[in-house]
């Protein structure tokens, strides 16, 4: 049996995923949680094979949570899922240590196959994403720019885009403020802009958040 823990702050989403996964005889849901603190409390008591982690789970963002899990529970495999742009966040989460990424717009059939594939230690992305990633970079603006960004830069960009100041970004990612300023300067250079407003407009145009 594949033991799964679901981490999502929406009860109806957790219930829906649970029902889909439990339709498979090979999968057992051993816990479901709504915040990152609940997630780590649960992981201290149970050992899932796969954690299904929502990108925007409250308290700590999904990528930071993933990094913390990799340090504290290195044997647990994580399948990230989100309504966010698949082109951007799939690569970002996989770089940070996830075994797969599932868009909330994907077919229901993908959920079971994704969990099974990840449980075996294999990488999972949808066929649609795999095909898009195979296209020439010159025709895929969001991907071409995104490939230049590290997963940490994407985290900083996302928090800046949500209206947070440098100090708040630093606190949210456990960095010092000077480091955040460095990331911001690096983002501006990579996206070829010279101020925060243009940076966020460029990021939005390129579907980076």
From TrEMBL:
Biological process terms in GO annotation: phosphorelay signal transduction system; regulation of DNA-templated transcription
Pfam assignment, any one: GerE
Keyword tags: DNA-binding, Phosphoprotein, Transcription, Transcription regulation
Highest rank taxon of the organism: Bacteria
Keyword flag Transcription: yes
Domain HTH luxR-type positions: 142-207
InterPro entries: CheY-like_superfamily, NreC/VraR/RcsB-like_REC, Sig_transdc_resp-reg_C-effctor, Sig_transdc_resp-reg_receiver, Tscrpt_reg_LuxR_C, WalR-like
Protein name from the UniProt record: Response regulator transcription factor
GO molecular function: DNA binding
PANTHER family attached to this UniProt entry: NITRATE_NITRITE RESPONSE REGULATOR PROTEIN NARP, TWO-COMPONENT RESPONSE REGULATOR
Positions of the Response regulatory domain: 3-119
